Amino acid sequence: MKGWVRGLLIMSAIAVAVAYLAMPVLTVRALVRAAETGDEAALERLVDFPAFRESLKEQLTGRLMAEMRQDERTDDSALAGLGMLFGPMVIDGAVDMLVTPEAISAMVETAEAPDPADAVTPSEPASEDGEIRKSYAYRDLNTFVLGLTDPERPDGTLKLLLKRDGPFGWKLAGVELPAAPAQG
Question: In what order do the strands lie in the sheet with 133-140?
């Protein structure tokens, strides 16, 4: 009887470990399915919108500041100072307004982040065959990455970051934008 109980405990531990490691993949599949079908209620459950918005703001603000520092026209310019002062405020407002379940759906379908300069509307997949390539990886035990790549832009992988939400739950909580194209 002792061996039976030990075997049951080992099997239970294995089942918990498998569930623990497999849950983000199941969450990603639910997120993709909700995005493809336009299921806003499911997207609301699967996305931590405040954390996602903050992550996107940080990415866009960092990119804006880097571009402004590299722009030779903005050296020693009062206008550059105003841009660096007001740029993040504009990005904050635009991201707050634009990051919606529809925008998340468009990101999953097109592998493109919303552009604060444009109004976000669900768009058609960017590639001809409509197949966005998906890759999955753990970054650490509490962060899982869904990589979205359009075959027409293989160097432009958009990374959606899922964070652990309790022992077995996961939510989309961050983004890593693809590297900005080199300006020539």
Answer: 133-140, 143-149, 158-164, 170-176
